Amino acid sequence: MRLCDNTALELANMLRKKQCSAKEIYSDTLQRAQDEQNTINAYITFNDEAEKAAEAVDAMIADGRELPLIAGIPIAVKDNISTKGLRTTCASKMLRSYVPPYDAFAVEKLRNAGAVIIGKSNMDEFAMGSASDTGFFGAVRNPVDTNYSAGGSSGGSAASVSSGGAVLALGSDTGGSVRQPASLCGVVGFCPSYGAVSRYGLIPFASSFDRIGSIGRTVEDTYLLHNIINGADPKDVTSLNIFYPFNLIGELQGIRIGIVKELWNSFIDDDVRSSVMSAIRLMEKNGAVIKEISIPDILSAVKAYYVISSAEASSNLARYDGIRYGHRSDKCENLNELYKNSRSEGFGDEVKRRIMLGTFVLSEGFCDDYYKRAVALRKSLCAGFEEAFQQCDIIASPVYPKAGLKLGENKNPTEIYSADIFTVPSSMAGLPSISIPFGKNREGLPIGLQLIGGRSCDHKVFDIAYGYELVGGGCND
Ligand code: GLN
């Protein structure tokens, strides 16, 4: 087995026993990432400084310094998370040569802990999409079967962890973008409570939803990464300090698993339905109790999400005007043309669609009918979740209605949006959730189980997911 195929915790152990060096781990992982780049296209930019970072870890180990477990572990960072001195494009022509002058809070924490940032991972343009196929640098293929998409929008992050081209990865999740690619690539993806990880340095898409999530091959690895990046930050007023005990226990006895009946009545592929049901039965066999619950507004969540997130996107993306930074058109004779042409040339179709939709739902005469109604629905959905969590500890569902997403298969935006049915509700309510692999469909494509926890119950989500992994869930075999 090659070094890059080990989990982060195994590698941390090997480093401490001096069975390998951080430089060797980095070189092996980079080799895998580069070998697969032509087919999978998981990366947009590799980090030229990474080798030095790995050497610095080796020097500290040689000095006998005690280092965090994540030190020397190669990590991919989604390309909408700012990295000082390292190009950060959001997979957009608009930012194709943007080099941030500062690190995101999460990146700073990782660097301080000695993690090795191997490169910037590919994604949907400005994180808008579900198949990592809307970006300027081409689509990301699924390492499990390259005819399929890696999912999106953090497709490069999930694909690199799945293929061994990174050991861990950061992604961003606005409406499912960490959980969906994790599920489709057969790895673990965690989306924290809104505010658990600072958004400082995360290039905004929809600020009231955006979260930085962690991807790993096991629950423990994912927990290791999340534990480094979580915590309050004065530079993000919405950030919170959520307490995380050091370790995971994995107790399933007596855990009440909620099944939202409205969700299970919606369209779910047969293989996904039976796999996820057997995952839930496995937990029941190990002491968990299943409860049927109802969240009446849950099926309207997708519509409201696309209204609110597009409204926020239209405002957040107004800054790309060709003046301060980003693409500037050279075909213009006056200021208005400069704005218009820079934006028309710099943004791709999906981003333009969201900006137009968002501007429309906020416009005079339509705001009450669309934006304000969607915000009211969000409020009642949050109340529905709160009530649900009086009756259960965790809510279980599929992550995605299908196992595989064929590349280029679906070009119909409303159908693509509808497939966010399982991930968007908890995004609306800012709740923590995790995607864990469970089984494969008939074609051998991975299926994911989603567990959603109550507000700030991030540790509980990890702990139950860990319990599930301990009893044999969490694998694709
Ligand atoms: N598929 C959703 C969208 O396109 C979610 C994207 C995300 O979480 N960044 O909006």
From TrEMBL:
Q: One GO cellular component from the entry?
A: glutamyl-tRNA(Gln) amidotransferase complex
**A GO molecular function held by the record:** ATP binding
Which GO biological process categories is it annotated with?
A: translation
Catalytic activity field: L-glutamyl-tRNA(Gln) + L-glutamine + ATP + H2O = L-glutaminyl-tRNA(Gln) + L-glutamate + ADP + phosphate + H(+)
As for family, the record states:
Belongs to the amidase family. GatA subfamily.
Subunit organization: Heterotrimer of A, B and C subunits.
- Protein name as catalogued: Glutamyl-tRNA(Gln) amidotransferase subunit A
Q: Which gene specifies this protein's sequence? A: gatA
